[in-house]
């Protein structure tokens, strides 16, 4: 049985003061213990948010990470720095990083390997553009992204990974993939992992959907057979909405 995982990706939002207020509100709300709630916050908020969630079952995530431990990489954050703070998750290969910061399948693969080396659970994002979907290439694109992200990764590490399927055309646009379409691609990702490794591990890995998830559509998405959770942008910035999502 896969434990549902709802992760809020705050993106480039919230000052430290705003972050603390939001976490205090989330902390004080009712939360379903059977759902894993993760807050993926800007680097500058990690330490304060870590302090705030101490003693709760809320998990902490970063939104990116370099693959090297240290060195001349101005502006980058290393896995050692994140490990010291005590993060549980790191988002890798979000489409915004691929689109605006030249993240490639190769760098995604390096970062996934580094995260695993440091026992940080990677949330690996994949997803097709509108153009790719309209030309019927979504499965081909997503399969290539998944296989490259998992290159040279052993089966024993697969369960530590979460995959987030986020069709780019559904991110921040208010357009959600239909439940059926999202479930279809997610079960295809599961099948791809099953073919590369084993059916057993493909049944264990958690795969989220992301793209305009909100309180109004979360339960129907979670009713689908293969969708194990959501990676949520906009709706994770309001405590009321995020609490509704984790109590779907
Ligand atoms: O990481 C989250 C996704 O990019 C979805 O963002 P959104 O919920 O604002 O569409």
TrEMBL record:
Substrate binds at residues 9-11, 172, 212, 233-234. Pfam families: TIM. GO terms for cellular component: cytosol. One of its GO terms (molecular function) is triose-phosphate isomerase activity. Its EC number is 5.3.1.1. Keywords: Cytoplasm, Gluconeogenesis, Glycolysis, Isomerase. Pathway: Carbohydrate biosynthesis; gluconeogenesis; Carbohydrate degradation; glycolysis; D-glyceraldehyde 3-phosphate from glycerone phosphate: step 1/1. The keyword Zinc does not apply. The active site is at residues 94, 166. Its main location: cytoplasm. It catalyses: D-glyceraldehyde 3-phosphate = dihydroxyacetone phosphate. GO terms for biological process: gluconeogenesis; glyceraldehyde-3-phosphate biosynthetic process; glycerol catabolic process; glycolytic process. It is an enzyme of class 5 (isomerase). It comes from the Bacteria. InterPro entries: Aldolase_TIM, TIM_sf, TrioseP_Isoase_bac/euk, Triosephosphate_isomerase, Triosephosphate_isomerase_AS. It is found in: Cytoplasm. NCBIfam families: tim. Belongs to the triosephosphate isomerase family. Involved in the gluconeogenesis. Catalyzes stereospecifically the conversion of dihydroxyacetone phosphate (DHAP) to D-glyceraldehyde-3-phosphate (G3P). HAMAP family: TIM_B. Homodimer. This is Triosephosphate isomerase. The gene is tpiA.
């Amino acid at each position: 049985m896969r434990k549902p995982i709802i992760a809020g990706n705050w993106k480039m939002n919230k000052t430290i003061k705003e972050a603390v207020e939001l976490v205090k509100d989330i902390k004080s709300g009712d939360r379903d213990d059977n759902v894993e709630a993760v807050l993926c916050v800007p680097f500058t908020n990690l330490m304060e948010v870590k302090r705030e969630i101490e003693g709760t079952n809320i998990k902490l995530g970063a939104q990116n990470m370099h693959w090297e431990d240290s060195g001349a990489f101005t502006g980058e954050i290393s896995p050692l720095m994140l490990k010291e703070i005590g993060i549980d998750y790191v988002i890798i290969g979000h489409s915004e990083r691929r689109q605006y910061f030249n993240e490639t399948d190769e760098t995604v693969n390096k970062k996934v390997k580094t995260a695993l080396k440091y026992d940080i659970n990677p949330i690996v994002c994949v997803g097709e553009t509108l153009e790719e979907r309209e030309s019927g290439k979504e499965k081909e694109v997503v399969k290539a992204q998944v296989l490259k992200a998992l290159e040279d990764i052993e089966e024993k590490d697969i369960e530590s990974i979460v995959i987030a399927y986020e069709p780019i055309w559904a991110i921040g646009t208010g357009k959600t993939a239909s439940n059926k379409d999202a479930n279809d691609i997610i079960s295809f990702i599961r099948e791809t992992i099953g073919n590369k490794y084993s059916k057993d591990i493909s049944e264990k890995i958690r795969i989220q959907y992301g793209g305009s998830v909100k309180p109004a559509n979360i339960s129907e998405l979670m009713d689908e057979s293969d969708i194990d959770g959501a990676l949520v942008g906009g709706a994770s910035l309001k405590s009321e909405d995020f609490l509704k999502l984790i109590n779907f």
